[in-house]
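Throughout our pipeline, every protein is held as a single compact record rather than as scattered files. Such a record has a labelled line for the sequence and another for the backbone structure tokens. The remainder of this section carries one protein's record, kept here as part of the documentation:
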Amino acid sequence: MDYIFVDTKKNIEIIGLVEENKLVELYIDDKENKKQVGNIYRGRVENVLPGMEAAFVDIGEGKNAYLYVKQALPKRMDKNQKVNIDDIIKKGDDIIVQVLKEPSQNKGAKVTTHITLPGRYVVLTPYSNKISLSRKIKDMDEIKRLREIGANIKKYDYGLIFRTNAAGVEEKLLADEYNLLIDIFQKIERERNFLPCPKLIYKEIDLAHQIIRDVYNERIDRIILNDKEKYESIISFQGVMFPKLKEKIYYDRDFNIFYQREIMDQIKTALNRRVFLNSGGYIVIDETEALTAIDINTGKFIGQDNLEDTVVRTNLEACEEIARQIRLRDISGIIIIDFIDMKDKKDVDLVLERLEECLSHDRNKANIIGITKLGLVELTRKKIRNSLNTSFIQECPNCNGSGRILYRNIDN
């Protein structure tokens, strides 16, 4: 069964996506720790650092946001063109920026001046004139149809991206959403010269609405909510953009994620270093500031035929669990996977194909870079939010996060 749950508590909302009875995405929306990704601000440039090719922008959210030179280039300027940050913006300038990445403990939010506005079917890209499509749309006839629709509905030289959900959707519906997003963008543009500064001028819809907007499809069997106000708010999504949505929404006042044993077991597993496979093998996941390392071991799995067969079967099984854990833990940045050594190149290719297939289900697509000289698989995944660990785990005050405690006194 595939379903979405929204467990609303006092100041926290827990949103999860379950596919084939396995938890694959989990988000914690803490009302006291406001989410910023997608928000648009009128900010003031506080400092320009030519040596870092970046600027710091006060957006009124505590830490100054970080604006990289390529995210500050004027509309239509070639991103590959060599420019200096202080040629584009100056200290004291008021600029409109959008948050790309949530702030972390040590860094402020990452922002861009290239505003984009997502809908259910279309993403408006006013700083590009291209018509693009989700890479998950494979049918050539559908690709041709959407490109023709894009050319028909495009206005003001504003580009657009057709999302995966756009496949099979009629032109009028796509045009209506595109025009709605243009209206929102033009309202944002009119805020450029109005005080005060800094100021929040556009707030992205809350996390529960975002997940339902982006994930809901015909495969979702139900959406479970335990808050009446949130239930009625989601019901308001009903319409041509969300056909039959009301039929799949269930209000269950007594729903509590902490009483869902299978889900809670999967959450606990996602917070552990070691994840066991059904065969008896296991994977070990270590997240560091620089990268995430994932190691595969056969464990108790001894196979039936020979060592090579045991190794390949363990690696293939690990691919599915690794892809799920990356998605569930929201691991981003550089990811290094140390598969069990395989001698035959055909087996290596088989495992890489399986890994790519499993990763293809992730909305935040991971890119497989290749195999290093040491036989490690390297991939990257875009960071949007902080990982699941940050919502549940804090640094140990005794070992300062090293996982080791000094047992001999080295002080005089």
Observations:
- The mean pLDDT is 88.
- The CA atoms of residues 260 and 362 lie 24 Å apart.
